[in-house]
Structures are given as structure tokens and as C-alpha cells.
Amino acid sequence: MDELELLKKDWQKKEEHLPKLSYDEIHKMIWKKSSSIVKWILIISILEITLPQLLFLFPSFRSAISDSSTFNSGYIALSVFYYIVVIYFIYLFYKRYKEISVLDDAKNLMRKIISARKTVLYYIIFSLSMLFLIFLYYAIGIYISDEALMSIEGVDRLLEKKSLEETRNALFWVFSLSGLAVTVVMGGIYFLLYGLLLRKLKRNYQELKKMEV
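The structure assignment produced for this chain is given below.
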């Protein structure tokens, strides 16, 4: 018992030197971390939409796009719709960042964190859906259009071995399954990248919830 009492006294002495944070200080720390997380979400989303556009700097890529018969009005419409919605999401991320950047009481900060998390989840679902839809669009185009089918590199060699219908069916499933595989892989990357940030936001929310109890 004497040894136990000595250990307790020793710990109490150490505890006196540990920093004691007030409610307001802890709240401010959580607010700063949450604001930083949403800022990173905004930066990543902007990079995600701008980096692929660098491909157009390469002449070979521009040539492939302009010469491709599959680059038609349907694909342009999908692309325009995608960019409009993504830009809207970027605006929402910026809005959530500005909201969280304003120091508020715990209850309002919790509400803003939930709102930010929902926005990110909706963005992930939309992006993955559009990715699969583009692959499916190409697959359907190949299935119903001879022009789209013949525009694919190497299709002539396939036609030497298989009939037109067999080649069409094979390429339809190749594009469809490839779209599914790419969507799953990108989903893993999204949930790894954005999921990490969302988990941090969730932890901040839980800390605030404990403080409110």
C-alpha cells in the first residue's frame, strides 16, 4: 500500500504540470481542425477537376479526341453536365469551408460538420456514378452504332476472327465490365482519400457531442 500511495503522489505531481484546457480552448481547437479539413477537401476537389485538363496540352491527346467518332454530341452533353455539377460541388465545399471558418457555438459547429460530411458523400456518389455512366455510354454506343464500333483501335483484327455481332457483344461487355472495375477502384481511392478526411470530421463531431453532454 505504501508503494501505491507513493505512485499516486508521484502522478499527482506530474499532473500539476500537464496543461489544463478550458471548454472554450478545446472548442476552438476542434473548430480549427474542422476548418482545415474542409479546406483540404476544397483543394482536392479543385485539383481533381483541373489536373485531367492538362492532358489537352498534349497534341496527341487533342488529336485522338478530335478524330474520335465517339466524341459526339451525347458525350459533350455528359461532359458539360458533369463539369457543371462538379463546379457546383466545389462551390458547396467553399461555402461549407466559409461556414466552419466562422467561430460558432458547439451546437452550430456540429450542424455544420454534419452538413460538410453529407456534401462530400453526395459528391463521391455523383462522381462514381458519372464515371460508370461514361463507360456505359461508350458500351451502348458500340452496341448500337457501327461507326462507334469501327472507330475502336484493333477492331479490324477482331473482325477477322469473329463475326460483327460477336465482336459487338464482346466489346460491349469489355467496356461495361471495365467501367465497373474502374468505378470500384476509383471508389476505393475516393473512400481512402475523402474517407480519411471524413473520419477526422466525424471524430471532431463526436468530441463536440461529448462536450455538449
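Interim note for the steering committee: The chain has eight helices and no strands. Confidence is low (pLDDT under 50) at residues 60-67.
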